[in-house]
Amino acid sequence: MVALLCQLSLALVIAIWFRVILSWFPLNPAGVMAKVNNALGFVTEPILGPIRRVLPSTGVIDLSPLIAWLAIEFLVRRLILGC
């Protein structure tokens, strides 16, 4: 069970970083990559949204993926699961 949770937390971190990378490029709304971006948003927004609401505004830089990654990596993967 712990191994499955470790894999799911790793998949979530990867989804967050793919979403960050896709945000750097203009996407055609009818394209395949826009659908991938929407799917990644569906998966990652429940984690990133609350962090964005708590963090102070930093202009155009969104620090919520970094905070989410640190929280998942150190709190969940290291302390709780021991991955």
Write the layout of secondary structure elements.
Blueprint: H1 2-22, H2 32-54, H3 64-81
Helix pairs in contact: 1-2, 1-3, 2-3
State mean pLDDT (0 to 100 scale): 90
Q: Which series of helices and strands comes N to C?
A: HHH
Query: Radius of gyration over alpha carbons?
Result: 14 Å
Helix content: over 70%
| Spans where pLDDT lies below 50 across 5 or more residues | none
Structural class by SSE content: mainly alpha
Strands, total number? 0
Distance separating the two termini? 12 Å
Classify the beta-strand content into a percent band: under 5%
The major sheet is characterized as:
none
* Count, helices: 3
Shape: flat
Short description:
By secondary structure, the chain is mainly alpha-helical. The chain has helices at 2-22, 32-54, 64-81.
Characterize the structure shown:
The chain has 83 residues and is an all-alpha fold. The protein has a domain at 31-53 and 62-83. Helix content is 75%, strand content 0%. It is built from three helices and no strands. Helix 1 (2-22) crosses helix 2 (32-54), helix 1 (2-22) runs antiparallel to helix 3 and helix 2 (32-54) packs across helix 3 (64-81). The longest helix is centred in the middle third of the chain and has 23 residues, at 32-54. The radius of gyration is 14 Å and the shape is flat. 5% of the residues are buried.
